[in-house]
Amino acid sequence: MIDGPPPKPPPGRVAVLVYRGIGVACVALATIGVFLPLMPTTVFLLIALWAFARGSPEWAERVRRHPRLGPFVRDWEERRVIPRRAKLLAVSMMAGGLAILWFASHNPIPTLAVGAILAAVSGYIVTRPSA
Asked: Model's pTM, two decimal places?
C-alpha cells in the first residue's frame, strides 16, 4: 500500500521557463516599486518567490538574501508581519490613488468599486501583525 498521493513530477522545461519569466518580471516590478510610491514592492517580491520556488529555487534564495529587499520577504515568510511604515505607506498610497481616480473620472461607479477593493486590501494589511 502507498501512503498519500504519489509525488509530483518535476516541472517541464517550458513550465520552468514560464515560472522564471514570471519571477523576473515581478522582481523588475518590485524594483520599480522601490522608487515609485504608487507601485507596490512586497507583493511583487512574494509573487516572484512563489514563481522562483517552482522554476528556480536558487533564484528564490537570492531574493531572500538580497540586502535591501530580503528582510521584508523573510519577515513575511517567517512571521507573517508587515513593518508599520510599510502599512502606513500602503494605506496612504491607496487612499491617494483613490482620490486621484475620483478627481480624474468624477464617476462614482468605478470609484466605489475600486474603493471597495482598496478598503478590503487596506483592512487585510492593517490587521496583519507589525514588525
From this structure: 0.68
CB < 8 Å & 24+ apart, contacts of 92-96:
93/37, 93/38, 94/118, 94/121, 94/122, 96/38
User: What burial class does residue 3 get, using C-beta atoms within 10 Å of its C-beta: 0-12 exposed, 13-18 middle, 19+ buried?
Assistant: exposed
**Domain match, 74 and 19 both:** yes
Q: Which domain holds residue 18?
A: 13-79
pLDDT-flagged residues of the chain (< 50): none
- The three-point CA angle 57-64-58 to 5° equals 20
Condensed to tens digits (0 to 9), the pLDDT of residues 115-128 reads 999 999 899 999 99
Grid cell of 67 as nine digits: 540586502
Residue 64 covered by a domain = yes
Please check whether residue 60 is in contact with residue 26, taking contact to mean a CB–CB distance below 8 angstroms: no
**Helical packing angle, 57-65 and 13-35, nearest 10°:** 20
